[in-house]
Each structure stands twice: as structure tokens, then as C-alpha cells.
Design brief:
Urease, subunit C, domain 1, alpha/beta, 2 domains, about 20% strand, 19 strands, TIM Barrel, about 450 residues, globular, 4-stranded parallel beta sheet
């Protein structure tokens, strides 16, 4: 622990702090000081009494833990929440892509992204890896809310809803990276959609760009049986093996879903330093299959959690994702300890930070780390008693228990409410939904 400073921007007191450090250090009556967007001190609450803070949060004995890192999302797809339910992945994509073609422009993306990021913030998420068209609109949404964002140019092998031919898409990618490379609060990844929407030459060009610009890569892979069949027809191999021969199975690559892997492929991911964003909500809802999470954990694959978009999972609730991930790991392996509460909370925090390439910045509470954390109330009946805080958080708590959220040293949720008004964006999304129901275009 550290010596508390004389002054701080934010001081959190009377907290049960879960640091999520290597030793899983807990401070049952702890305090946390923040200045300049960073944690400056962490220790017993009694030692922080003399700190003069611009803002003080009395946690009331509640839990303080790192903010969640959602490693796979399409925030703006709140626009299509519930539009294509009760369908497998291929049928879902057909319906959603048609709606996107008619209605997705930068203005609608920004409104939808504000709703998506706000929903996540209210549930304790402080950073998201977001893949969607018109990424500058999502950047604007994140800046409005003070939300941590990893995003980047999307690659698809045909003229997508943004109407960009391939060469223009590559040019846009270079321009987007140059514009946002050093942008405050924004981290970059290249975002190829999938093996089944890109040719191998195109995947190779993306790999070359990633190497030249020293950028990580995020891609959907091995999500559903229909994808596995299509990729076999197109490429004569599985998605993971196509990525390997295209130079994309490398450190810094983050695979979304990774449901259908054989033993050799799991070993390949571990050896290559590839991370996985496990999305149990959308996998279950679309009938995509059971992730071999216990086997990947045993192999040493970096594991994290994602919500996917609200069009496929219907909400952006990392608490549900944690609980379902733990339950499905037990169900698929037959072992009650397949994914412990500690392992699950680690995936949602430090695992997410590591998968996003931000392990030195966020996902853990320690001096010098980014001030990304949440305060959880402990007075709800479903949280009483609490014998094990990790079990309580993973198996009983939910987003309604989130009292305060601090992102990059800025309180973005206070007393369970957003600190930034979003009424205009809510109205815009409602108007768009009415047009979608009527069948009219944007």
C-alpha cells in the first residue's frame, strides 16, 4: 500500500477494495485516491482521513473493484435491439445487414453508440473494444461520456454499408489510424469482420498493415456451425487455420467467440499469444455452440469477456455475461470448479485489459494505474450475507447494484445515474426505430 497525498481529485473511503492484483489483495476497510486520471494511493481508510479531496465518495462498506473491460461489442447496434430474434447466426445476419444498409449513417451510429456506451457505463464497464462502421462516430460518443474505447477501421471484402470499395477501405484505414493514433482516451485496433467476409489476399494485406503500423487486430472467428461450413467451402480450412496462413495468428490478435476449435487450434492460440473474447450471451441466444473455456484456460490462452452487440444479445450486461460464462463452463465440462468466481471476475477485468493490450493501464487497482473503477452497494437483500466477495459479485450482484463508476478519473455514473445527459440520443434512436417499424429508410 502507499502513503496518501495531502490532496486528491477523488477520494473513495469506507470501501471493501478488491484490487485484482496478482495476489488478489483485498482491503476490507480501504480507501482510494485519484488525481490526474490515475490512482495515486491505496490503503486503509483510516490513513486517508486528512486527504483534502475535490470529490469524496463514501462507499458505505460497499465493494470497489476495477471497471469491466468489454472485449467484444458493437455499441451502435442498440439501434437493432430485438429486431432479428429467434434465428441462427446466418438468418440473424441477413436481417440485420438489410436494416443496416437502409439506416446506418454516421449520425445514427453516434446516437446508437451513446446509448450502448451509457448502458455499459451504468453496469460498471469503463472500457470497450468496439467494432462497427463509421468508427469516428463511436469515438465522438465515447468522448461525450468519458468512456474508454478501443476501436478502428472495419474491413469487409465487399462494398459494405459504408459503401467503401476495397482500395478506398484501405485508404480510410490509414487515414483513421493517422488521425487517432495519439488521441486522448482512444486505443486502436484493426477490425477485419471475419474470414468468411474477406479473401485471403485481403486478410494478408490487413496483416501487413497491422505489422507496419504496430497495431493489434480484432476479428470474429469460429463462431457458429454455418460459419465453419462456409469457410471450409471458401478456403478449404477452418477459420483459425486460415488466419494462421494469412499471418494473423500473432500476439495482439483478439478473436471474438472462438467457439468451434479443436485441440490443436487451442494449442495454436496459446503458443501464438492470441487472446479470446468469450461472448456467452450471444453464443447461447444464437445457438452458436459451447465454448471450450476450461480447455482454453488450461492451455494458457488469454481469456476475456464480451457482450457482443445488443442486436444479438439484446443487452450489454457484463454481469449476465460473467454468470453465464461460469455456468456454461460447469455445464460443458461437468466440473463445478471449471471457471471459479475469481477466474470469472478476472476475465471481466484484468483478462479483458490484457486481451485489449491494456494490461499495464487498467483492469487492476494500484497506484499509477488508470482510475477506472466502480463502487457496488452491499445493502440489497440479494447480497446479504456475503461470505466470499468474488462469489457474491459473480453469482448474485448485478448492474442495478452499481452506485458509482469512475473512468479515467472522471465520475461518469453517480448514485446510479449518468453524469452526462443523453436525452437527445434517446429521442433520435426512438425516431429511427419508428422508421424501421414502418419500413421506411433513413
Amino acid at each position: 500500500m502507499t502513503v496518501f497525498p495531502e490532496a486528491a481529485d477523488i477520494l473513495v473511503t469506507n470501501a471493501h477494495v478488491l484490487t485484482m492484483d496478482d495476489e488478489l489483495t483485498e482491503l476490507p476497510t480501504g480507501a482510494l485516491a485519484v488525481s490526474g486520471g490515475r490512482i495515486t494511493a491505496l490503503g486503509p481508510s483510516a490513513e486517508a482521513r486528512r486527504v483534502r479531496a475535490a470529490e469524496t465518495i463514501d462507499a458505505g462498506g460497499g465493494f470497489v473493484l476495477p471497471g469491466f473491460v468489454n472485449t467484444h461489442c458493437h455499441a451502435a447496434m442498440t439501434l437493432f435491439r430485438g429486431l432479428a430474434d429467434d434465428r441462427p447466426l446466418d438468418g440473424f445476419l441477413k436481417a440485420v445487414w438489410a436494416a443496416e444498409a437502409a439506416h446506418v449513417v454516421p449520425e445514427t451510429v453516434q446516437a446508437g453508440a451513446v446509448l450502448g456506451l451509457a448502458e455499459m457505463a451504468l453496469g460498471g464497464v469503463t472500457h470497450v473494444v468496439d467494432m462497427y462502421f463509421h468508427p469516428s462516430a463511436t469515438v465522438a460518443a465515447a468522448r461525450k461520456l468519458g468512456f474508454g474505447l478501443t476501436t478502428g477501421p472495419v474491413f469487409i471484402g465487399f462494398d459494405g454499408i459504408d459503401r467503401l470499395p476495397w482500395r478506398e477501405r484501405l485508404r480510410f484505414a490509414e487515414e483513421f489510424v493517422a488521425e487517432h493514433r495519439d488521441a486522448e482516451g482512444i486505443n486502436l485496433m484493426l477490425m477485419p469482420h471475419s474470414v468468411y467476409t474477406l479473401g485471403e489476399d485481403q486478410l494478408g494485406e490487413i496483416a501487413a498493415l497491422a505489422a507496419a503500423r504496430d497495431l493489434p487486430v480484432h476479428i470474429h472467428a469460429a463462431e457458429a456451425p454455418s460459419e465453419m461450413r462456409l469457410v471450409a467451402e471458401q478456403h478449404g480450412a477452418t477459420p483459425v487455420r486460415v488466419l494462421e496462413r494469412c499471418g494473423l495468428l500473432r500476439p495482439g490478435t483478439l478473436l471474438a467467440h472462438a467457439v468451434h476449435l479443436d485441440n490443436a487450434e487451442i494449442a495454436m492460440l496459446a503458443e501464438a499469444g492470441v487472446a479470446v473474447a468469450h461472448c456467452p450471451l450471444s453464443n447461447a441466444k444464437l445457438g452458436s455452440g459451447m465454448v471450450r473455456i476450461a480447455d482454453m484456460k488450461a492451455a494458457g490462452v488469454t481469456l476475456s469477456l464480451g457482450t457482443d452487440g445488443a442486436s444479438s444479445g439484446n443487452d450489454l450486461d457484463m454481469w449476465k455475461a460473467m454468470r453465464l460464462a461460469a455456468h456454461l463452463a460447469v455445464l460443458s465440462s461437468g466440473r463445478p470448479d471449471a471457471l471459479s468466481a475469481r477466474d470469472t471476475l478476472f476475465m471481466a477485468t484484468r483478462g479483458g485489459a490484457a486481451a485489449a493490450g491494456l494490461g499495464a493501464e487498467t483492469g487492476m487497482l494500484a497506484p499509477g494505474m488508470r482510475a477506472d473503477f466502480m463502487v457496488i452497494r452491499r445493502d440489497a437483500l440479494h447480497l446479504i450475507p456475503s461470505y466470499d466477495p468474488y462469489s457474491t459479485l459473480v453469482h448474485a450482484a448485478g448492474r442495478d447494484d452499481v452506485a458509482h463508476v469512475v473512468s479515467r478519473g472522471r465520475r461518469i455514473v453517480a448514485d446510479g445515474r449518468l453524469t452526462v445527459p443523453i436525452e437527445d440520443e434517446i429521442s433520435a434512436v426512438r425516431r429511427l426505430a419508428a422508421r424501421i417499424r414502418d419500413g421506411s429508410e433513413a
